[in-house]
# Entry
Amino acid sequence: MYQYKGFEDTIAAIITPAGTGGVGIVRLSGADAFAVLARVFTARDGTQPSAWPGFSVHYGRVTTGAGDVVDEALAAVMRAPKSYTREDVAEISCHGGPAAVRAVLELCLENGARLAQPGEYTKRAFLNGRIDLAQAEAVMDVINARTDAALRAGERQLKGELSTELDAVRQALLNALAGIEAVLNFPEDDTDQGQAAALRDDLAAARGRIEALLATAKSGRILKEGIKVVICGKPNVGKSSLLNALLRAPRAIVTDVAGTTRDVLEEAANINGIPVNLVDTAGILAPRDKIEEEAVRRSRAAVESADIVLLVLDGSRPPEAVDRVLAAEIRNPHTIHVRNKADLPAAEGHGAHARTVNISALTRLGLEELKAAMITLACDGAACDTRGVILNDIRHVDALRRAGEALVRAVDALRDKVPPEFAAEDLKLAVNELDAITGRNVDEDVLERIFSGFCIGK
Ligand SMILES: Nc1nc2c(ncn2[C@@H]2O[C@H](COP(=O)(O)OP(=O)(O)OP(=O)(O)O)[C@@H](O)[C@H]2O)c(=O)[nH]1
Ligand SMILES: [Mg+2]
# Structure
């Protein structure tokens, strides 16, 4: 168990993005935050930061020791424990040019603060007990969210919904463990039937909750990381039109000339809340020159690396041999056949592929159905629920899977009347795995790895 040792030093970092903006903010956190602030900032009303109430903002100037004015600024203070880190925190909002913010930061560093490491504010919030580890990790999910649904999932985890669910599992495991230990401590007592039933209920409840959580791992991963959808097919079937329809923007050039698209085009889209990289490819079949050869090579590579392939066909014309050749060439099992131009009379002879959706990129007919089919396929056929408690981190999934396996071993041991010590050991292992997720019990190197993935200033 990692023990909070207290933090000797006061840290400082620029917490706004690099570059030019209206305002840039330098944050100080630690026991000397107000002392450092007092050395670099002079309030116009002549008051001292040490006397300011928490959550108050003061106008003044950032000045060097020699009295040179660096910038005019607002300083805000948050007093421990009511702050992001639970330490004394001061924030200096100055002009948002890179030179201005850096000058303010450097002044803080010359006056007793040390540069914060990546994620160190959030790490302190965790080590000081304001949030648990799963919540700390959700901070980055919130920052990195590319769609509303991903943002809401991150916010829910930040609020502690995953942690609450894991605590419920943990409690059921601890109840079961207490039941087993009662048997171990008083083996002469006849095990009462009611107790045995309560034990089974606790174990079944824990197992059900673990399985339900693990079932969300796929949705969680695609919500966090997004998917790559590659649109391919022979020339003129409407690949670029489909890309534009999904983006609701005329991003790719569309003409009735076969071979319009000559390069691979990638665009970020939001499809039913899932961040999607949509890739339009060249429909070239027989390259005529070096440019087209390269276009074909890139199209093939895109198809190979896709999470989902949309093979577009022209449903208004009879199928050609090349359609079959193309379909056979795509080895990606996550392929949907998209029969386009459904606004025109359908041509005969189109065979039935396991996953076929009829659409019209022109009139948007069938587009919602296609979107739903894409997301379901990305979730391996399961419903993609982005609204409940979701596992979205491989570390959490691994730990929970191991917890589930330990639990199954415990249940088997009890059923097979193996000495109950073995089941108790497995339940303890399962509890430990849960505690690694929430950070109750986690190695320092795991913490290092998690927080080093954060940005500086968070
Ligand atoms: N009627 C009808 N025409 C469509 C539809 N989708 C595309 N088209 C037309 O089909 C032609 C080709 O469309 P594109 O989107 O450029 O086709 P593409 O597959 O990207 O073609 P290349 O880039 O040349 O491989 C254009 O004239 C489009 O207006 C549709 O749903 N219905
Ligand atoms: Mg095109």
User: Anything to note?
Assistant: The pocket of magnesium ion (ligand 2) is lined by residues 239-240, 252, 260-261, 280 (CB under 6 Å).
